[in-house]
Specification:
alpha+beta, GMP Synthetase, Chain A, domain 3, SH3 type barrels, 2 domains, 3-stranded mixed β-sheet, 4 helices
Length: 182
């Protein structure tokens, strides 16, 4: 899920160590576009889930160095590094634990219970399965992570509130004007 195509996966193999070396994790990578001008979109974050503009610039510089040296993409491309955003994609098994209690949409590569798309409250993981509490269902659904082709958090009031709280917390901790007086 972090990469959709074989080319995406090849690029992840090349770029994951670069991102990790400078303190980031690649959440998702997509190489989009046709033969002419393509776009390499990378969503990343620090291990604690943060990603600001300076982080994006730092990771972009590190990736650019390797991309220039290895030249794995034929032709021109535009590199775009960003945070996953508030209604982020869930691409790693650990994401389903991290965002437990929040609403998500999950799409599968096959039918399960007669459908491919599910919406519910994340209930963590169990072994290699995603746990999802689906409205109207008594039991928690366990979905094999390998079946998930796309998953993302649902943008709702709860998620907006959590995002605002996280931003406020970062502003307080990052504010150099904050001094303790004794």
């Amino acid at each position: 899920m972090r990469g959709k195509t074989a080319e995406d996966v090849k690029l992840l193999d090349l770029l994951d160590p670069v991102a990790e070396a400078v303190g980031y994790e690649i959440v998702r990578l997509r190489l989009m576009g046709g033969e002419e001008r393509r776009r390499l979109q990378i969503m990343a974050e620090t291990p604690d889930g943060d990603m600001n503009v300076e982080d994006c610039a730092r990771l972009s510089r590190a990736i650019s160095e390797i991309m220039d040296a290895a030249d794995p993409i034929v032709g021109e491309y535009l590199l775009e590094v960003s945070s996953p955003g508030i209604d982020r994609p869930l691409t790693r098994l650990k994401d389903f634990d991290t965002y437990e209690g929040l609403e998500a949409r999950v799409e599968l590569d096959r039918l399960a219970e007669g459908r491919k798309r599910f919406k519910g409250i994340l209930a963590g993981t169990e072994d290699d399965h995603v746990a999802l509490d689906i409205e109207g269902e008594e039991e928690t659904a366990l979905i094999p992570f390998a079946w998930v082709v796309e998953a993302k958090l649902v943008l709702n009031d709860q998620l907006m509130k959590l995002g605002a709280e996280a931003r406020a917390s970062r502003l307080i901790t990052d504010d150099p004007q904050q001094e303790t007086s004794e």
